[in-house]
Every structure is written in C-alpha cells, then in structure tokens.
Amino acid sequence: MSPVFPMLTVLSMFYYICLRRRARTATRGEMMNSRRAIESNSRALPINVEVVQYAKEVLDFSSHYGSENSMSYTMWNLAGIPNVYPSSGDFTQTAVFRTYGTWWNQCPSAQLPFKRTPPNFYSQDYVELAFEEPVYPTAVHVLETYHPGAVIRILACSANPYSQNTPAEVRWEILWSEAPTKVNSPQARQFTPCIKQIDFPTNLIRLEVNSSLQDYYTELDAVVLHGVKERPVLSLKTLMIDMNDLDEDDDEEKSDCEMDSLNKQFSVAALREWTTNGYFDKLPYELIQLILSHLTVPDLCRLAQTCKLLYQHCCDPLQYIHLSLQPYWARINDTSLEYLLSRCTLVQWLNLSWTGNRGAISVSGFSRFLKVCGSELVRLELACGHFLNETCLEVIAEMCPNLQELNLSSCDKLPPQAFIHIAKVCSLKRLILYRTKVEQTALLSILNFCSELQHLSLGSCVMIEDYDLIASMMGAKCKKLRTLDLWRCKNITENGIAELASGCQLLEELDLGWCPTLQSSTGCFTNLAHKLPNLQKLFLTANRSVCDTDIEELAANCTHLRQLDILGTRMVSPASLRKLLESCKDLSLLDVSFCSQIDNRVVLELNASFPNVFIKKSFTQ
C-alpha cells in the first residue's frame, strides 16, 4: 500500500482534533467575534427555530439590597419581562446586590482574603435563574439599567430545576467570562457577550458579578435566554481555524477541568518510580514548602504526580492551613472532601462558601470531614451552603472547639432551631448571620454565651421579634463588639440604641440602614455620636429624619469617621455637610443620594473643596 494513505490518516485525525478543540472552546467567551471566526451568522446547520424566553423564576442568590419581605431592589425582580429597561437610573423595580466598590474592604468588618485564590476567580456575588424550556444557548442578554459592567461570568447548568428526577451528575459550563472592567457610563444597556456553545440543553443560568470597580450599585432588570431545542451542528465555515490556536490555552476551560481530577491526582499508584529528584534533593524541606505555598490547589494536585518527593510536599498538611474551595464550587463534592481528608488535619481557615448545593455535598460527607479536620479550625466560611441542616451546626459546635469566625451568610434554608447550637462555640469572635432564619431565643443564647464577639452581622434577619431586647443583651454581654450590622431590622427603637451605645463603646462600625423605627427627634443619633467616638463607618440609609443636628454632633465627636451613608434624608443642609467634611479628615465615602437639599451643584462644590472624598449623588429618570 502506498505510504501516502497513512499520512492522510494522520492528517485527517489532526484536522478532526482541531475541529473538536475549536468546537469546545472560546477564548474568554469571544470565539464568535474573534478575528479568526468566519461568518458567525451561519454557525448552525441545519437552522433550528430559536426560542426566546425571560427568566421564569429566581432560584438562588448570594445577597441583595432589598428586604426579604418586599420586592424593592430584590433579586426577585429578575423574573419575568423588563420593568424599567430601556430607562436609566435608580429604580426600586430592579435587582441590586448588597455592595459595590471597594468600600466594604476598607471598613473594620472587612475580612482578610484567603491565600491561593486563583487569579482568574473574581466573583463576589451570584444569582441563579430558571427558564421554562431547556435549550442549547445561542445568546444571553442581560438588561442593565444603572451602572452596568458588574457581570463577569455566565454559566449554564445541566440540571433541570423543574424535573422530578434527580440527575446522576450536575454539570456547570462557563458560557462567558472576563476580568472586571469599568464601564464609564451609568446609562442603561443590553449586555450581550459572545457565549461558548455547550453540548447539553439548559434552563438554569447563573450570573456572577464583581462590583469592585463600580461607582455605585449595579441595577439589573431582566435576563433573556436565546436558544434552540435541537443541538446545533457546527458549520465548517464557522470552524475554520488559525493554526496559532493550537498554541493558546483557554483559561476558562482549564479552570473548569482543574477540579475534575482532584479525586485521582493524589493517588500514589499514579506516581512513577524516580531514582533522583534533581536539584530538589539539595533544597531544605522548608524552602520547598515555601515555594509550593504559592500554588493553587489544582496546581498542587498536578505537581503531586511528578515524583515522590513533591508528592510528599503536596500532601503535607502544612500546605492546607488556609484552604479555600469556593473558586471550585461547581466541582466540589463528597468525594473531593474524602480525598482531601488526610491533608487537612491542620487546616485553620476553611472556605466552603457556595459549595455542595444540589446534593453535591451530603450531611454525612460534611460531618465526616469536620470530625477529622475540625479540631484546629479557627475560621469557617459557609455562605450560601444550602446543604447545611441542624446536624451540621451540631457537628460544628462539637468538633470545632477553637472556632473564632463563622459565616452563614444567606444560608436561608437552615431551620430556626439549628442556630441554638452556635451558643456552644463560646470562642466566637465573628458571626455572620445575614439573611438567615435565626430566631430571638437562639440569638439571645448566642449573645449570652459568646461574650468574645467582636463582629456581628444580623442584616435582613426578619424572624427576630424584638431588636430592643437583642440590643440590650449586646450592651450587657458583648463589651468587645467592634462592628455590628443591623441592616433592615424593622423594630429597633431609641431604647435599644441607648442600651447598645452605653454597653458597646468600642463600636467602630454600625449599619442602621433602612431601620424605619428610628427617629432623629428622639435623640438616638446624637446619643450615638456622644457614646461612640471610635466610629469609622455609620450607615443611616433611608432614614428621612436625619438632620443637621445629627451631622454636627458627628462632626464634633466622631472625627475618625471614614464612611457615612445618609441616603434619602430631607433635613440635612450643605452647611452641616461642610462642617462634617472639615472635621472628619479621614472621610472617604459620603452618600447623599436623594437628599433633597443636596443638589448636583452642591456636590460639585463639595467635591472641589474636598477632592479626597467620594461624594455620591444618585438620580432617577
């Protein structure tokens, strides 16, 4: 046989591999608008009828600006047709996340970041949306109505949230991703990134956001999913390839695959026999450990396969003192925890936020992990951990005697009776219960026994009946409290504020945003100014009664103030603001949005006089 035929076979296989690679990947989600993409409008043959649908339901989210008992500024506004678009401005009918900018990283309650966070993981918040019909996505439109640009990743899930059958495997695929970028205009836009094609139909879309570059809250109005019912067959015109592609790495595909083999890559059987470890034999053990401490967890997994020496280093529990699995939330399951078990016996900081949902982590798997690895834990992050139940909190209380920081933010499926077990963790210094169903009895017990508390978040905890009683207990028992979040607590009065200010005089941060029962006429805000001279952050958001007297008392007594939010007040004049800015030299954030006496001309004048202060004035059209 002529030798040309084997050569043709090799070339055919090579061309097939190229086609497969191009079909699977898209460089940062932009394959279809790349200079190498040809005639992207002919991407599918034969042509399917395209289905266009708005989100039917909001399934899950990490935070929102609004209340749990209303629709204003909540994630639930993302369901259905647009309420605001194409109008621009600040509207209550939109979906708004809790934070923006870098201000939350510059206040006393800010937490230290985890080491080994992958450089391409930027996500701070997320929202998951269900659609009526599963489709192969061809486009995703995000309708942004104010300060756009926070969406940095869009994912699709293989699980149908409306199916009665539990899937054997839940897959998440990144449709599009990019690093945070600043959009200069706050005006509304339709954001339509070029998405990657996937090999399964989906009716579950997840948006992840990073608002760190935003000058104000991003507001989202609706999400539109375009797709076809039948899997498209890529046309050859679409798949014409530049040979340079073969040398490019797709960051997102690598990120997707990093944790797939986590359960296998630590296997001793996979190691080859080596007679020498090269120059590594000459390096001190501690120096090798230091070098490896800069690697991410998946990189450690891969490196462990190279030789026995590096396997030993990569499995050393000292490499896992700080372990964040949040960046790999879509890939973490019981098996992952089982394989990490022997390496995490010394873990002190553990981040399992966003992990384990839809059955990926079981109660037994989590409990087994903590029973082996919980004795040294100091910090445990479990935000949005919907697999948690009362048994899990009981195990935490029993197995983590040294725990000082516990984050249960947005664990809104935990039953109220579960929180009573937290009272057994007497060494707690930080407790985040934002958007949980903690009840008054459990919280009083926690405050009574956890007297070392320094940071406490009770934002949007709607099941607490009497916040005055809670504030009184804080004043009596939590003398070391430095930061307190009471965002949207509905029933605290001047009596609770008086007890709090008298007993917790070390407070540096206090969030009383959207607390409608506080009235300036009772003297509650001037009392705060007199009793809490160390205040650095004070949010009085949407309290219409804040007046010049309150601002002048803050200027006279709280000279360390760095952040002040008085959005919505009608009683504050430009003159009192000027006194505040002159007195508080460290002030960096002043939100006067919707303050009727503070117009754009006043803001411009104050900005000119105090250029180091970010003075925010929002608007509605």
Question: Could you characterize what this model shows?
Answer:
The protein is α/β, with parallel strands linked by helices and 621 residues long. It is built from 15 helices and 21 strands. Helix 12 packs parallel to helix 13. The termini are far apart. Mean pLDDT is 88; it is low at 1-45, 235-249 and 265-274.
How much is the average pLDDT? 88
What's the Cα radius of gyration? 27 Å
Global outline: globular
Span between termini: 78 Å
Strands, count: 21
Low confidence ranges: 1-45, 235-249, 265-274
The largest sheet has its strands arranged as: 10-11-12-13-14-15-16-17-18-19-20-21
Number of DSSP helical runs:
15
Counting helices, strands and paired strands, the structural category is alpha/beta
Largest sheet: 12 strands, parallel
Helical content, roughly?
10-25%
Proportion of residues in extended strands: 15-25%
Please give a quick description of this structure.
With 621 residues, the protein is α/β, with parallel strands linked by helices.
From the structure above, extract its key features:
17% strand; 621 residues; single chain; disordered N terminus; alpha/beta; nine-stranded antiparallel sheet
SSE layout and pairing:
Elements: H1 4-24, E1 50-54, E2 57-61, E3 95-96, E4 125-146, E5 151-157, E6 172-177, E7 189-191, E8 202-209, E9 219-228, H2 251-258, H3 285-292, H4 297-303, H5 308-314, E10 322-324, H6 334-340, E11 349-351, H7 363-373, E12 379-381, H8 390-399, E13 405-407, E14 430-432, H9 440-449, E15 455-457, H10 467-477, E16 483-485, H11 494-503, E17 509-511, H12 524-531, E18 537-539, H13 548-557, E19 563-565, H14 574-583, E20 589-591, H15 600-609, E21 614-616
